[in-house]
Queue: 2 jobs
Job 1
Amino acid sequence: MNGYDGSKDDLRKRLNRVEGQVRGISRMVDEDKYCIDILTQVSAATKALETVALSLLSDHLSHCVAQASAEGGDFAAEKVREANEAIARLVRS
């Protein structure tokens, strides 16, 4: 069971909205819309994806990492390392 099982519907809704936003951005480029308007939509889509990422990270920490920490040992250390690397990737992006 994944940590996000309880929020799958919300994640799907958010991802569907992002998909629609990206299609809209593509359409704006095809229609030669103003650059700043396109950038505004790119920013909105990026923010929406960041929201999905933070939700997944929160679920991972509260489920996967917490469970591994309760078990302890190398498995717990691995889950903490994975979480740290995921956070670093999010911060860099």
Note: The radius of gyration is 17 Å.
Job 2
Amino acid sequence: MNRYVVLTAAIALLPIALTGCAAGADERVGDQGTTKFEVTKTEAEWRKVLTPVQFRILRKHDTERAGSSPLDNEHRPGTFHCAACDLALYSSTTKFDSGTGWPSFTAPLENAIGTAVDSSLFGVRTEVHCRRCGGHLGHVFDDGPKPTGMRYCMNGGAMIFKPTSSPGL
């Protein structure tokens, strides 16, 4: 192979690497493949209840552009829920600024998530999905802060934030 072929291939694959999309991504956990979830819908039913961005992320394993989610800058007390099935996923007390442009957490709520091996790009990562509906949330890495050392790097488009209500309001 010459440099031209390698460079052309790299440029052609760049959009895939930047968006997190890959051939076969819709066959992984979360799209009603071999795993059974409590909440299941057809593709048409999911499209009716999710925005186009939510559908791409949660059902097709897409990744939002870094810095594009308002949830990255959400600092109020509350809980982050799955945008597809409303399961509580993360407490705001575990959220931290990872500098990546995506909402990041040190730990999920108990019994909130599932994980799967994701080998869709140029290596192996650990995918995080909603335990109840299988919706793709993001990935987990072992480079986070104490106390867990984990960084749950989530797509803000896959979640909704519910602030804790203050007494007297």
Note: The chain has a mean pLDDT of 84.
